[in-house]
Amino acid sequence: MGSVPFTTSDLQTSTSGFRSSPTLLCTPLMGTTVDQMLIEMRKAKEIGADLVEIRLDCLRNFNPHQDLQILIKQSPLPTLVTYRPVWEGGQYEGDESKRQDALRLAMQLGAHYIDVELEVAHDFNSSILGKKPDNFKIIVSSHNFHNTPSAEAIGNLVARIQATGADIAKIATTALDITDCARIFQITVHSQIPIIGIVMGERGLISRILSPKFGGYLTYGALEAGAISAPGQPTAKDLLDLYNFRLIRPDTKVYGIIGKPVGHSKSPLLFNASYKSVGLNAVYLHFLVDDVEKFFNTYSAVDFASGCSCTIPHKEAALKCMDEIDPIAKKIGAINNIVRRPDGTLTAFNTDYIGAISAIEDGLRGLNVVSPGASPLAGKLFVVLGAGGAGKSLAYGAAQKGARVVVANRTFERAKELADKVGGQAMTLAEVENFHPEEGMVLANTTSVGMKPKIDETPLAKHALKNYCLVFDAIYTPKDTRLLREARETGAVIVYGTEMLIRQGFEQYKNFTGLPAPEELFRTLMEKHA
């Protein structure tokens, strides 16, 4: 079950006519009473769904004639009726013939679609031969809750579904790795009949969002985060508002953030809103990646993973997969921004240091520290607390601008290792308190001291801050750390961690698109959501 590289040619060979219609958004109704479902239907219409899935197996006391009549006739949206048995992951445990009778009744009462499981589809479809209404379609479904089989096995499954007389095939598998989605994308693109291809679980989320890119017939979006009908299902609202589902087309470029965990990242919010504001045909996703190399090898198409942000724990591992690395990023030994060139090669950058350093330079310019033609950091004594990833970024960034760098770390060895690389001085964190060879120094904290939940802590005593003209804190939860509050009280200019976050985003946007970032929009969204 090796992962097959997924290339652009997979997309271009798709010429089947039915793909010209947009992918539908279907909202499952999980109410336990008819009244609840009627309320949910109206909500689904308000949110912007195209159809609703009536899950009969969720109803507590189901009276087929009476309930189906009400649900189908009163629905403000087209209806898909599903009566999922326990043996296919549903809740119905009763008599099989009664279950199939209810589905036939739904068809007669005007449901637009019914979903029948592959196991019984042959007999069921024979039973309605010649009785199907005009606008009615049968979805034949297969669910695999264990894994995602090989492309060949999935292809055989679609052929079996097609042989039952299905109008639409539905294949739902389970993602053990994000690269499993590539096999479903491949099958979706090449299918001879309309297909719903979904990979369940958090690692399969991209399969649901990208249905329109690969010509999927429909995708499912829940009414609420707590009311999902299958693992990894997004809400309809997120599909529409966060991922701009209606704007995704076969030629849409795919960007995203690679991490583990990654669901908490606000980057999709920033980038998707920005792409939409300038009319860019692109979408930015959460990529939950376990193995970076496998990810890039599998998704090698130029328009897939066109650009990626990279976060913990992959900032170092991703270096090995790159064709070209920006010199400073190479020195820092960590990357956070990857761009795929038109020839398919991968180029990496570290925009963290650019974000922080440019914010600090602007802060110094406000103090009128001007050195014509040079950076206001040139010649400044620049003290970095911490020698981890962010510490490295700031030390290299400041040294590049001509600052004299001092690296302080809890363990002296790590401080010395970094200081030697940037031609600076090393000391322990304890020594910083009494270090003031001159006035007007710059302080940059990259340790986690003062971060939520321990917001009462600070890495440097207040009395020691009077020797600094500017203090930067990389922590952004909380935004106003104790260190920054006390620095402000001693008269220093302060620079927030959120500033580094926003500016490194500007830089990534520029690398991805070749365009300047919509800075006002970025700032507004950050203030509202972060």
From TrEMBL:
GO biological process: one example: shikimate metabolic process
SDH C-terminal domain mapped to chain residues: 497-524
Keywords recorded for this protein, A-Z: Amino-acid biosynthesis, Aromatic amino acid biosynthesis, NADP, Oxidoreductase
Stretches assigned to the Quinate/shikimate 5-dehydrogenase/glutamyl-tRNA reductase domain: 377-449
Protein EC: 1.1.1.25
GO molecular function: 3-dehydroquinate dehydratase activity; NADP binding; shikimate 3-dehydrogenase (NADP+) activity
Keyword Isomerase recorded: no
Residues covered by the Shikimate dehydrogenase substrate binding N-terminal domain: 257-338
InterPro entries assigned to the protein according to its UniProt record, in alphabetical order: Aldolase_TIM, Aminoacid_DH-like_N_sf, DHquinase_I, NAD(P)-bd_dom_sf, SDH_C, Shikimate_DH, Shikimate_DH-bd_N, Shikimate_DH_fam
HAMAP family assigned: AroD, Shikimate_DH_AroE
The protein's name: shikimate dehydrogenase (NADP(+))
Source organism (scientific name): Eucalyptus grandis (Flooded gum)
